[in-house]
Design goal:
H-NOX domain; 6-stranded mixed beta sheet; alpha+beta; 2 domains; Arc Repressor Mutant, subunit A
Length: about 350
């Protein structure tokens, strides 16, 4: 069976506890991620003669949807795309090529927050805590053991993957994490060793050449080891204040508080991901597979309303853009769903009692 054919499931990761472990993964077919990883995969395989149609077979996605950052995709669609390129003849070298392309700049606010980490230790902690924002196919953890800082990767979808797909996904993850480490700590920082809880597939020399470290197969876990001496190092772009502001954003994105349950949470998350796409309650109801009347009734049952959720989403996103970007009022109005900047300015005054200028001076 292929990932796209499975029922929704989220198996618990097995193994010994790590010092820091990410939240559980979403359901396999839960659509909640921007399609950036699938887009990178398409770009990576194009020079090898594998077209987007092949990559997207059985995913239900079109090239236009993959190019639209408002499209929501699932882990299942992502794994199906990987399965497609393997079936088309892609070798394990492609897994590393994809991982090398997935720089932190591709991860939105999550990636920017990681780059601004005050220390590498906080980078490790933050990466694990908010890993759900990275379209994860594994759960991420880290721990310090003496002179080692150890990333560990635990599979939760292994039972639905072929051996080829597991080999591909884990190599991509190893390279992706190595790429993120270089993005933050510099190109001179390389892993000491990589452990694979997989059989040796006869590519050890090639694996070691790409990762730049010894690779050991048939191990009890999947791990990437770094010297613990880097943990107190400050990344080049370290900024504690910016990271603190972005952490608030990531708290919201990861679905905490009211975004984590009920129909109000589903509406909230949908609008947060694409506030300028769903201009009416009817459009949101259609996306959620119900009538507008049913959506209104279910929100009433939760003591919520569509208008209140829209207003809260616009407020949170507007303040986020004002604090973390230099976008103009016109651009922010467009992004959060206002018809013009005048309406945006009136809303800001109502929300905060201040002007855009006041907020940006603060």
């Amino acid at each position: 069976m292929t990932p796209g054919d499975q029922d929704d499931r989220g198996a618990a990761a097995a193994g010994s506890p790590a010092r820091s472990r990410s939240h559980g993964l979403p359901l396999l077919n839960q659509k909640m991620f921007a399609p950036y990883k699938i887009a990178v995969l398409i770009d990576a395989v194009a020079p090898r003669g594998i077209g987007s149609g092949t990559v997207l077979a059985r995913t239900g996605l079109t090239p236009a949807e993959v190019d639209d950052p408002h499209t929501l995709t699932s882990i299942g669609q992502y794994l199906t795309a990987y399965d497609n390129v393997i079936a088309a003849g892609a070798d394990l070298g492609l897994a590393y090529a994809v991982g090398a392309r997935l720089h932190l700049s591709a991860y939105g606010m999550y990636g920017y927050a990681l780059m601004c980490s005050p220390t590498m230790r906080e980078f490790f902690d933050f990466a694990v805590r908010y890993h759900l924002l990275a379209t994860p196919t594994i759960t991420l953890g880290w721990r310090q053991e003496g002179a080692l800082a150890i990333w560990d990767f635990r599979e939760v979808y292994a039972e639905i993957m072929s051996a080829d797909l597991r080999n591909f996904v884990l190599r991509q993850q190893m390279m992706q994490t190595s790429t993120h480490m270089r993005d933050v700590a510099g190109t001179a920082v390389t892993p000491i060793r990589a452990l694979f809880g997989l059989p040796d597939s006869g590519t050890t020399a090639a694996d070691e050449d790409v990762l730049g470290c010894p690779c050991l197969f048939g191990q009890a876990a999947h791990e990437l080891h770094y010297p613990a001496s880097i943990l107190e190092r400050a990344p080049e772009l370290a900024n504690r204040l910016t990271r603190a502001m972005l952490e608030e954003t990531c708290d919201r994105l990861i679905g905490q508080a009211k975004t984590s349950s009920g129909i109000a949470g589903e509406v909230y998350q949908l609008l947060m991901l694409a506030p300028n796409r769903y201009s009416s309650m009817q459009a949101v109801a259609v996306r959620l597979g119900m009538t507008e009347r049913t959506l209104r009734r279910r929100l009433d049952d939760e003591d919520s309303s569509y208008a209140d959720i829209v207003d809260d989403v616009r407020r949170k996103l507007t303040l986020e853009y004002l604090h973390t970007t230099r976008l103009s009022a016109d651009d922010i109005a467009l992004k959060v769903g206002f018809s013009d900047s005048s309406n945006l300015r009136r809303a800001i005054k109502r929300w905060t009692g201040q002007t855009i200028g006041d907020l940006r001076k603060a």
